[in-house]
Amino acid sequence: MQNFNFYNPTHIVFGKDRLGELDNLVPKNAKVLILFGGGSIKKFGTLDKVTKALKDRIIIEFGGIEPNPRFETLMKAVDIVKEKNIDFLLAVGGGSVIDGTKFINLAANYEGNDTADLLLNYSASKTVVKSIPIGTVLTLPATGSEMNSGAVISYNHGKFVVGSPLSFPTFSILDPTLTFTLPPSQVANGIVDTFIHVTEQYVTYPADGRFQDRTAEGILKTLIEISEQTINNPEDYDARANLVWSATMGLNGLIGSGVPQDWSTHMIGHELTAMFGIDHGKTLAILQPAIWKIRKEQKREKLLQYANRVWNITEGDDDYIIDSAINKTREFFEGLGIKTYLSDYGITADKIENVITALKKHGMTALSETRNLTPDICREILEIAL
What we know:
alpha/beta; globular
């Protein structure tokens, strides 16, 4: 096992009917900026419940944060934070709203000349030394952003990762019932996002992280077990609760501590979303089987372990076992209603070079856990993903 530091200060409040506890979680004298996305939290009454729980605190609302939160939109919220002297940020939504809120916190306290540097220069966030406390009310299980310090923000036709220890939420309320009204397609995207978060930290190369491996396998098997159930029966509380907790645990730092991590699926996927508007979860479903086919030798031992322990595939030679696991994974995604080829989304071979150009522009030229996944290899991956 590799050396590691693990730090996660987020207080999780999990279960039914927990919104009333906001009164104890948010300081009594706080001036709160509530951040959200579209109108669903108003339509289904979540915003009313949140504001009621906050009682007599000063509340300002900021809506319209996009599914891929845009720098320009978030900077409007930064202006409000500064003008109104906001001292508590409350994100009510899914990963995009929470990611956007994390960026707003950093941007409001950044003293550099150009706030975009927070996205273009990852080390810029290290210069931020002040922080506004963040709380979250999760309405879409997928990204794990409710219990980590990272965010992905859209800027100038690209998606950029930003993070800081100051970006951890102080608390996150995870009430599975708040996710019951989600469309099936969003639930499916969330399942895939969680699944790939786990495999990015698990299907790499052996590091004798036995606890991490077994925990990762447990999350993957849980997703396989409850996926159809929670999509077809959205108000099945136990199934949805297991999805919510799996999504949170998939990217809170636990299973990635002391083991190699890949993230090439996400990095290439970000370019597909930025360029073609394909949902993030769908880009991952397209890319992961293709990446494993191309990187079979580099990932052989862990792909065999994945096949054996997650899919119970034990018979046949090694190549057959690995290919069967890759096929099973694709079938799993397709069974959720997610298409797994670029051509399913109207992407043709002549567009691949544009993706490669974007990867080079954004410095994504040495991806994967071994840092040897080059743009030429990315081209191969995209070609077989057609």
